Amino acid sequence: MELRNYETVFVVTPVLSEEQLQETISKFRSFLQERKAEIVHEHKIGLKKLAYPIQHKSTGFYRHLL
């Protein structure tokens, strides 16, 4: 059986504290690992402007997982 590689980029609200941000990222990582996902690379993109507002926010913390 051939393994497939997937990647995801997710955006977290910019109003979280650093501790809350790390907790949210950890929960998402755990969610994937519980479903047998192997995370081979993680890239912290950081705070970026969104292309359009989401829930009245114009920026967000981006994270890339492979």
For the structure shown, list the relevant keywords.
alpha+beta; Alpha-Beta Plaits; three-stranded antiparallel sheet; 1 helix; 3 strands; globular
Overall description:
The protein is of the alpha+beta class and 66 residues long. It has one helix at residues 18-34, and strands spanning 8-12, 42-54, 57-65. 26% of the residues lie in helices and 41% in strands.
Summarize the structure.
Helix content is 26%, strand content 41%.
CATH class reads Alpha Beta
**Low-confidence sequence ranges:** none
Looking at the structure, the CATH topology is Alpha-Beta Plaits
Distance between the first and last residues' Cα: 20 Å
Structural class: alpha+beta
Sequence of secondary-structure elements: EHEE
Q: How would the blueprint of this fold be written?
A:
Layout: E1 8-12, H1 18-34, E2 42-54, E3 57-65
Antiparallel strand pairs: 1-3, 2-3
